[in-house]
Automatic annotation (TrEMBL):
This is Helix-turn-helix domain-containing protein. GO terms for molecular function: DNA binding. It comes from Mucilaginibacter arboris. InterPro entries: Cro/C1-type_HTH, Lambda_DNA-bd_dom_sf. It holds the Pfam family HTH_3. It comes from the Bacteria. Gene3D superfamilies: lambda repressor-like DNA-binding domains (1.10.260.40).
Length: 100
């Protein structure tokens, strides 16, 4: 088995390209990444349930364009709206954790 040289982890790559944790640039990057990740999770859950954006919107009392924006990295979302989309639109349960 050949050993690959110069491999870096994702965290190391981000440290090099964006900056280390605690810097302003890295904090902005991490915040944006969390919003992106939320959109991907919602899109994956919707697809697993076999639902369209329009169906999720109708079930959760919002509109298709809002669901589309959410899946594509909508930065600001009300917590109550997020809960409604997950519970009523996707039939799921929202879990939140705080990591220090």
């Amino acid at each position: 088995m050949m050993k690959k040289k110069n491999l870096t982890s994702l965290n190391e790559f981000i440290d090099e390209e964006v900056g280390p944790k605690g810097t302003k640039k890295r904090d902005e990057f991490d915040k944006g990444f969390e919003a992106f990740k939320l959109g991907v999770l919602i899109q994956q859950a919707r697809q697993e349930k076999g639902l369209t954006q329009e169906q999720v919107a109708e079930l959760s009392g919002t509109n298709k364009s809002y669901i589309s924006k959410l899946e594509k990295d909508l930065k600001d979302i009300r917590f109550s709206t997020l809960q409604r989309i997950i519970s009523e639109g996707l039939g799921g349960h929202l879990e939140i954790s705080i990591k220090l």
